[in-house]
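Backbone-to-sequence.
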C-alpha cells in the first residue's frame, strides 16, 4: 500500500465547525463517537464558527494559531476536522501544526479500513482510500519532486510523483475489475433466488441503529454486533423461515451516516446493490435517538443515490427497551398495510410482530382457500402437509380430501406444475367456493 496504517490510541484534537446552515451542520456528538470508533484518544474538543471560512486554512488565522499552541501544549499526534478539507488546506494546516491533519472523510475511511473483514470489503475500502489519497499524494512525495537520475535514467523522465500516480491508477483499475467480478457473482446469485421465487429483505438504516442485533435475533446468527459506529461493513445473508410465507433471504448491510462520502457510496456500490435489488427494505430506526428524524432523512438520501428509494419500506423502530411506556406494536396505514413496527431487538419483544408484518407485505399474493383433492392426488396432499401449509382437513363422501390451505401462490403453482398439471386450471377446478 501507499500509506501507513496506524494502530490507534493517538492523541487527537477534535475541531468541530458549528455551522448556521442546518443542512451543512454536523453533529458534534456523532463526531466524537466517530473519533472514538477510530481509536483516537481525544485530548481536546474545539468548536469553531463556520461563518468565516478561508481558502487557505478553512478556519481563521487566529484559530489556527490557537490550535497550534494546543497541539504543542497537549503533545497531540493528530488534528481531526469535522469537515471536508481540500488537499491544499490539509497541507497548509500540517505545516503549521507540524502533525498530521485528517478530515471527516479520511476519518470515516480509517474506520472502514479497521472494520472490513472479507476480501471484498477490504477491496472496497482500499478503492475508496486510494481514490481519496490520489489528490493528496504530493504531501507524501514532496522530497521526491525531481527527475530521477542514475545510469540509464538520465535525461527526460517522469518524476517520482508522476510514477506514483501512475501506479495508483493501475491499482485502482485492478480493484475495480475485481469488484466488477464480485458484482456479477452477486447478480448471478440474485437471479438464482429469483428463479426459486425466494423473496429478499434487506436491513438498512443509520449506523448503530441496531441492524446487526436485529439480524442476529431474527436469524439466530452470531454476526458481529457492537455499540459503535460502522460495526458492520460486510453484507451477510441468511435464510429466514416465516409462517404463512416460507423462506426469505435476509441481508444485513453497511450503516449509513450523515454526509456519507460519495467515494464510499461508489466503492460500496456492489454491496449496496444488495439493498437496491430487494423485495422489501426494513428501515431500522433508533427510537431512542433525539435526532432520529434527521437520520431518517439521511438514510432516504443515500437510498436515493443507489436507486432504492422507490422500493417498499417497513420502518422498524428499535431499542424499545430504552423507552418508557411504549409497547411493541404494528402501526398500519390507511389501507391497513403494516407501516411501522415498534420492537426491541435486544430483549426480543415485538419480533413476532415484525415477522407477521414482513409476511403480510411480501405475501400479498397468498392463496387462502379449501382444495378438493381426489385420491389420485394423494402425493400432492402429502406435499401440502410436508410444507406445513394445511390449516385443517376434512373428507368428502367419495373419500377425497378437503384441505384448507394458506401459502404463497407461487409455491402452489410450483407444486401443481410438478404434478404435471396446469396451475390455473387446477385452482379453478379444485377450489371450493
Amino acid at each position: 500500500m501507499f500509506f501507513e496504517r496506524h494502530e490507534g490510541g493517538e492523541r487527537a484534537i477534535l475541531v468541530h465547525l458549528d455551522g448556521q446552515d442546518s443542512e451543512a451542520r454536523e453533529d458534534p456528538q456523532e463526531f466524537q463517537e466517530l473519533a472514538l470508533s477510530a481509536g483516537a484518544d481525544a485530548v481536546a474538543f474545539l468548536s469553531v464558527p463556520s461563518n468565516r471560512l478561508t481558502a487557505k486554512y478553512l478556519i481563521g488565522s487566529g484559530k489556527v494559531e490557537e490550535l497550534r499552541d494546543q497541539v504543542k501544549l497537549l503533545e497531540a499526534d493528530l488534528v481531526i476536522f469535522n469537515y471536508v478539507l481540500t488537499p491544499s488546506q490539509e497541507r497548509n494546516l500540517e505545516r503549521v501544526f507540524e502533525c498530521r491533519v485528517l478530515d471527516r472523510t479520511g476519518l470515516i475511511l480509517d474506520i472502514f479500513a479497521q472494520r472490513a473483514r472479507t476480501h471484498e470489503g477490504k477491496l472496497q475500502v482500499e478503492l475508496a482510500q486510494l481514490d481519496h489519497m490520489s489528490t493528496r499524494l504530493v504531501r507524501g512525495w514532496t522530497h521526491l519532486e525531481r527527475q530521477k537520475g542514475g545510469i540509464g535514467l538520465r535525461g527526460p523522465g517522469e518524476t517520482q510523483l508522476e510514477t506514483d500516480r501512475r501506479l495508483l491508477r493501475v491499482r485502482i483499475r485492478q480493484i475495480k475489475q475485481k469488484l466488477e467480478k464480485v458484482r456479477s457473482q452477486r447478480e448471478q446469485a440474485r437471479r438464482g433466488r429469483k428463479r426459486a421465487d425466494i423473496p429478499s429483505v434487506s436491513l438498512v438504516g443509520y449506523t448503530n441503529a441496531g441492524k446487526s442485533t436485529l439480524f442476529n435475533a431474527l436469524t439466530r446468527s452470531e454476526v458481529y454486533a457492537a455499540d459503535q459506529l460502522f460495526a458492520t461493513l460486510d453484507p451477510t445473508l441468511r435464510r429466514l423461515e416465516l409462517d404463512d410465507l416460507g423462506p426469505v433471504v435476509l441481508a444485513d448491510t453497511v450503516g449509513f451516516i450523515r454526509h456519507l462520502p460519495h467515494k464510499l457510496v461508489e466503492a460500496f456500490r456492489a454491496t449496496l446493490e444488495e439493498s437496491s435489488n430487494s423485495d422489501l427494505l426494513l428501515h431500522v430506526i433508533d427510537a431512542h435517538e433525539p435526532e432520529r428524524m434527521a437520520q431518517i432523512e439521511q438514510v432516504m438520501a443515500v437510498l436515493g443515490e443507489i436507486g432504492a428509494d422507490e422500493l417498499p419500506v417497513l420502518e422498524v423502530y428499535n431499542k424499545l427497551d430504552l423507552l418508557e411506556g411504549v409497547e411493541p406494536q404494528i402501526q398500519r396505514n390507511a389501507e391497513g398495510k403494516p407501516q411501522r413496527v415498534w420492537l426491541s431487538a435486544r430483549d426480543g419483544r415485538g419480533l413476532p410482530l415484525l415477522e407477521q408484518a414482513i409476511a403480510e407485505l411480501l405475501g400479498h399474493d397468498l392463496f387462502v382457500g379449501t382444495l378438493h383433492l381426489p385420491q389420485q392426488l394423494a402425493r400432492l396432499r402429502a406435499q401440502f402437509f410436508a410444507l406445513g401449509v394445511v390449516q385443517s382437513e376434512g373428507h368428502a363422501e367419495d373419500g377425497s380430501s378437503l384441505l384448507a390451505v394458506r401459502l404463497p401462490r407461487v409455491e402452489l403453482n410450483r407444486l401443481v406444475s410438478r404434478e404435471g398439471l396446469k396451475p390455473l386450471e387446477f385452482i379453478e377446478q379444485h377450489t371450493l367456493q
